[in-house]
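Q: Could you fold this chain for me?
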Amino acid sequence: MRPFNLTSSLSKVLGFQAIVKSAFNPSYRAMSIVSTPRPEIDRVIKYWFEGDDVPQKWFRGGPKVDSEIKDHFSALVSQARAAELTPWTAAPKGTLALIILLDQFSRNIFRGSPESYSKDRLGLGIAAEAIAKRFDRQVPVMQQVFFYLTLMHDENLVSQIAGMALCEGLVERCVGEEMMKDFAVNSIKSAQSHMDCIRRFGRFPSRNEVLGRKSTAEEIEYLEKEHSGW
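A: Sure. Below is the predicted structure, expressed as structure tokens.
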């Protein structure tokens, strides 16, 4: 078996061959960014990553968090989904905020609707380009995983393999930070679960009802045991 090639896999995700080639070249240098104040970016990042309830907000937020996000971020999510916030991709922090709007807040606002997944490819494209430019390495470890979740949310095995490899890299960057290392290890476990599901079914059965897809007998049996909500 040939060894997994992360550069090749990333390039296949959305056809970013040229971008990935330049980004992973040893002579590559990140472009100089002149940062401009963007209160909206800071607002997204602060809401999603600050406070004592962060893990609860991410994984068990429920109707309360859905309502908060709808009340405070609906306008920004609409702009992001209409590709009106492209300037945010000029820097790592803005790119991360845009990915959160597309890949996370869309799920909160449109929960139970096909719209919750309809802009996943847009978020994936932005994330893949950002990863190729190493923007993910320029934010804290806990924030890096949200670049990779766009790959884990994709119903494509190449994306899943790339997401798994990127999550494995998180552990290596957590030297001396046991709490962050635990978070990285849990991210690998999550990536493995996503990848196993796509390898087995070629899609996430938990989305079938929302997307109007008929579940197979095997998927129905799986859904009776698993409640992933992917």
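A (continued): The longest helix spans residues 178-201.
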